[in-house]
Structures are given as C-alpha cells and as structure tokens.
Amino acid sequence: GMAFVIPAPWVAVWFYRWFASRLQVPGRPNFSFTGQVGDIWWAFILLVLLGLVGAYDPTYQLIAIILQAVLSWVVLRWAVSNLASNGQKIPTAFDGSIWTYIGWQLLLIISFITIIGWAWVITAMLRWICRNISGTRREILFNASGWQVLWRSIVFALLCLLIIPI
Q1: Does the pTM exceed 0.85?
Q2: Which residue among 45, 82, 145, 165 is least enclosed by CB atoms within 10 Å?
C-alpha cells in the first residue's frame, strides 16, 4: 500500500492497530489504537513522496532521510497519543527526543550493511520508544527479540514473492 502513495495512510493505520494489539501493558487489558486516517494523512503521503525522491535522486537522499525521520517522529507522537485500553483512550505521550530518534533512524540505515543487524536495531529502537512513553503509571514493553523480528520479516518477504506470480 505504501508503494502506491494514496493508500499509505490506510495501510499505516491498519499497521498501528495490529502493532498496538501486540503490546503488553500490565493492568491494561485489550490494548488498542484509536487513530483515524484523516487525523494525519498528510504526513504519511509526505513520507512516501520523500522516500521516492530519495530513491530516484541520490543528491537529495540525505535530506529526504532526515525529513522522513522528522515526519516519522511526528507520526509516532500521534500514534502514541491514540492508544487505548478496553476501548477507552489513555493519556499517553511520546517524550523521546527528535535528535535521538533521528540517530536511531540513521543507525537503522547503517545497520542494513550487516544484512541481519537491522533486526536487532529495530528491536532496541522499539524498546527505547516504549521507555519514552509517558502518561501511564504502567511500563509499556516491547517483548520481541531480534531473532523473532528477523524470521518474521524473512517469512513476510518470501510470502510477498508469491504475490508477484498471482
């Protein structure tokens, strides 16, 4: 959906709903995401367009990466503010520094050189994100390992290959 630009906001909201349902917060059952596509659609469209600019014009690639990181940080703050438990919105906020977030994004890009190291960077980054969520007395944890992220990503990529012949 992200490749076609227009469906990007719908795909992103679907992903956030799936991801939030996988988070565990002690004492907060049925964790969910309440954000709507219309809330921040412009950021998703810009993210995709910046990705295309960076992919097709190497001279603007670093600028596109940094702007994508800034927009991702905006989207993350929006996503965290739309978390709910048992269908009731909880007063959460993401307090992580934009500069640290940009650093994580750059480390993630560099980690792709190692072929599989990105899975551990993503895992560590998600744990950092969870540690920087405020507004709840309970700790939010991301409990996957690098291996779990890696094998699921590989299976996902292999299954995507089956879509092409269809």
Answers
A1: no
A2: 165
